[in-house]
């Protein structure tokens, strides 16, 4: 239960319902609490050592598992990176675009959790690897990205982050071949603050600026021209923030990078934010590192189970067709369900297009397609060559997302093309790009010495096994025959002599902690880390709330000088040791106050007498 971030009391109540009563559980609620307490006490200061040993043992026994860590001068853990084999396989398939961001309060040591996130063939999040960092400095991120490059061997084409200076500098130093893009949402979220709330709410400024920022239907020249028009219209030439954002427009404006491959797949860090929320459901700020790794593995297992389910639905269910066009049924056999629905939507939108004219240009024919759904009035130019089915559109949707646009589908339908162009079907969007079940028994893990042909044979066997089980699910007689056939091969496999792992016996706690005799010093738990997002654990109060509290608060009065605003211990005046001196001090205060009001000062003896009476009355009241 602890793997799912379930506490001892809730775990006891769940087991009570499962087994049917308190007596059937076999333990009390206090036993559950005590076990959890003893477990945490047993971990104690060996938490970091146990977490590192857990990952290092995986690196030793799993052929393609990566793990790196580094410590400070006191041997306290400062950084931990890990990546398994399936994450590496997913990266080589879906790693064209990647996003990573730091999330906070995932463990009791305030180490930030940094998951590396991509997009799979179902347009869902896929986690490539994870890391824990003790600080968000440039040096920490440089170490992290170098570990990533060492494990995955190649750089992503596009990296999306926020405007964190440490991340930006580290990416420029390590990922020199990648295109770094800033999160559009983080930039546009600052618009009201940097420009002014009144301008954004009382005018059409925000609407006008969003119309040219978020669209990719205009060219880079049109964007620059319309940006300057908006700046001139609202008299914002002296706004430094807008000037700076326009200077880095190639790093976040879609109109300036739509010609780059896969630039439109990820424009914000919302994928990372969603990933942080996903892992945050199973983690908390009181978790030890051992518990955090257990929660991470449970969350990753859930994510991969969802991917297997989506693969199964895409392969063995048929979507509903909206047209009788040949290419729609072809796309249903090629793409995953999510990707097919996107292509189907583009085909359905062909009814809102119109071909204005076409002109031959050498081997190509240029079509001018009017799109009534776009804000631009300019027709889209589509170039088509019939000899080899080469076609590309001015909207650059295929370059940005890897999927054909409605303008290309319109031309293909006009030319009566009945077979989907294979050159425009990217491998990352195919429904058979990852064999179902490969994340449980990976072919390279089972037989790491196989070449590419052998691995392809294993993939075909796994796919054929899944296909047979789905086809024969309603025929019990055939399933029984197939089971006997499989069991006969299982007996042959049992007779094969496998090399056993190195012998060794440890008790349960020894296996859990990973304690063993080694030459290196044990890794100590991190202490005293303060990250940017760890916070002060106090709720931030608004200015209005602070004013209300201050107005209703009783003012402080000093018992030394009788002024308001401080106490006697913080009084700037010398401390009075007796009542006589205190009376003289009160007389001076009264004298000063009367002089400030324009009243003549009274003799000091009368003032002292009145002050003494005031002090006596206060003592009698006490």
Number of helices: 27
Mean pLDDT: 79
Determine the structural class based on helices, strands and strand pairing: alpha+beta
Counted beta strands: 12
Explain this structure.
With 622 residues, the protein is of the alpha+beta class. The strands form 2 sheets. Strands 1, 2, 3, 4, 5, 6, 7 and 8 form an 8-stranded mixed β-sheet that branches. Strand 11 and strand 12 form a beta hairpin. The relative contact order is 0.09.
Quick overview of this protein structure:
With 622 residues, this protein is an alpha+beta fold. It has helices spanning 8-19, 22-25, 29-43, 47-61, 85-94, 138-152, 165-174, 184-188, 191-195, 197-202, 205-213, 220-233, 240-247, 254-257, 270-280, 289-316, 326-334, 337-348, 397-401, 406-414, 443-446, 452-471, 476-494, 508-513, 543-552, 579-596, 604-621; strands at 66-71, 77-83, 97-100, 112-113, 116-119, 125-133, 158-161, 179-182, 353-361, 364-371, 380-385, 390-393.
